[in-house]
Amino acid sequence: MKKIIVTGALGQIGSELIVRLREIYGADNVMATDIRKVDSPVTENGPFELLDVMDKERMFKLAKDFGADTMMHMAALLSATAEAKPLLAWNLNMGGLMNALETSRELGLQFFTPSSIGAFGPSTPKENTPQDTLQRPTTMYGVNKVAGELLCDYYFHKFGVDTRGVRFPGLISYVTAPGGGTTDYAVDIYYKALEEGKYTSYIAEGTYMDMMYMPDALQAIIDLMEADASKLEHRNAFNVTAMSFEPEQIAASIRKHIPTFELSYEVDPVRQTIADSWPDAIDATTAKNEWGFKAQYDLDAMTADMLEKLARK
Ligand code: VAH
User: What is the pLDDT of residues 273-290, one digit of tens each?
Assistant: First the structure.
């Protein structure tokens, strides 16, 4: 039976990953950790501990005392925040990752951490971005993600740690409010569509980015971690995506439910520059071939579910 310790458990992915993991593996077998504590299913429906991922001693002790056999390291600063605080981002994103990898090496844990389409840069092919290609990101977040991918592969080849990762596209969910990302316009737009019937996008019309609905992201993590290791030629990290769209397309999808929805633009140069440096649409064939990756939600299915769930919220 898996015993999983998760860092960043109150973040955008963590908040839903914990709930899903506890459904599958049992609440007592999933320890959630985060640097802060708030009342939520994550902290109330199973083991929760405060953990600053820069505190290696506490991370090791929590994992050891819990009897963990798996580490899912989700704590990190996202792209826009990292661009505003590059030194903090380097220290936290790389220092936290190193502590999680070292803990996994010392305790023999299976290891997961997400990379991102942010690991690609302006010189990466923008259409059907291959699994193996040029990675020269121009953001601190991207530098962290490429370095992180290489570090995770190093821990696999050098120390035999079973490290696995995916390059997530923008993730869309209704559980946590958007924050710190470049793709979060695609989350915020749904909240504002219901609250105000209109949205002002900080990402320009015609800016294509890969996206995925959170249920598909959670399933990808679980499927990859359960995959037969002998089938994995790659490890850190697999391209995964469900769709690629630009703001006008998500607005059109929303108008199928809210016909009067209005979209306008006030471009944020910082986040637009980040978005322009990323691919338009990546290729996920390798993930499909090596461990059966398959997304269930397209744009219209995601819109219908997002609006329904947010309206109830
Ligand atoms: C961000 N949502 O915008 C994250 C993600 C691909 C985007 O890495 O920073």
Answer: 999 999 999 999 999 999
How many Å apart are CA 269 and CA 262, to the nearest integer? Answer: 22
Split at pLDDT 50, 70, 90, the class of 1 is low
Global pTM? 0.97
In angstroms, what is the C-alpha Rg of the chain?
Answer: 19
- 117 shares a domain with 37: yes
Smallest CA-to-CA distance from 42 within 19, 61, 62 is with 19
> If 0-12 CB within 10 Å is exposed, 13-18 middle and 19+ buried, where does residue 63 land?
buried
Residues 132 and 228 occupy one common structural domain: yes
115 and 206: one domain? no
30/177 same-domain check? no
Atom of ligand 1 nearest to the CA of 168: 6
- 291 domain residue, yes or no: no
Closest ligand 1 atom to residue 79 Cα is 9
Q: Would the CB of 178 count as within 6 Å of ligand 1? A: no
Q: How many separate domains does the chain show?
A: 2
Name the region of 72 (left: φ>0; alpha: ψ -120 to 50; beta: rest): beta
Could you tell me if residue 222 is left (phi over 0), alpha (psi between -120 and 50 degrees) or otherwise beta? Answer: alpha
Torsions phi, psi for 23 (to 5 deg): -65, -40
CATH code (residue 95)? 3.40.50.720
Tell me how far the alpha carbon of residue 196 lies from the centroid of ligand 1, in angstroms.
25
Angle at 165 between CA 114 and CA 70, to 5 degrees: 95
Ligand 1 centre from 65 Cα, in Å? 33
Host domain of residue 101: 4-169+214-239
- Ligand 1 centre to CA of 98 (Å) is 21
